[in-house]
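Morning run. Coffee first, then this:
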Amino acid sequence: MSFPTTLQVCRECGGGAPIDVHFCPQCAKILSLTRHGDYFDFFGLPRKLNLDLSDLEQRFRTLSRQFHPDFFYNATPAERLASLERSSYLNDGYRTLHQPISRMEYLLKIEGLAPKGPDEASRQVPPALLEEVFALNEELDDVREMRASGALADAWKARLQRARKPIDARRIEHEAQLQELAARWDGLDAAAPDAERRDVLAALRDRFLERTYITNLLAGIERELETA
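And here it is:
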């Protein structure tokens, strides 16, 4: 028997179940994760970037109780495996959706616009940041020369602190842009043209990569400051 792609198959009774349910409607057995949607579907949430964290927490606790392996101690091997699968997936999903940045990265991933890898934002300077990066690199070179020549730590650390101010300003600016784009995404309805959705997602991806680059720059400054 074959089922539409919006259905999953129960291993216990062979019946079909909607993709977003956790227990078979026919036999009430817990379903395996052979087919599932995404973390948003799993929690019964819309694909939004601004979530009610108290609601997310409540859903997590409710599902945790339903899937807990202790409740399946005397169940069939298939059910015990399904409870472990769903509990693990639930925990991963909660960690991802609970944090705004990991939630945004995950949304980009399931919408097909995820960064190609964790180092993508470090390989190329985003054009919007070229001026700040050039100035920062010059400052870092000067600071290293100061340190090599025996300058007092207070002197070169003060210079580093001044050098980070434009990068901090960029970080604040990008956080505001990400919040604005997140609101735009959440405001799109199901009938929104695909081109409009892609435009918002592409802008989110660009700002996300720039934010990652800025975070890496600030981490580099912190490492310099920690050098004795």
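The beta strands are 7-9, 16-18. Good start to the day.
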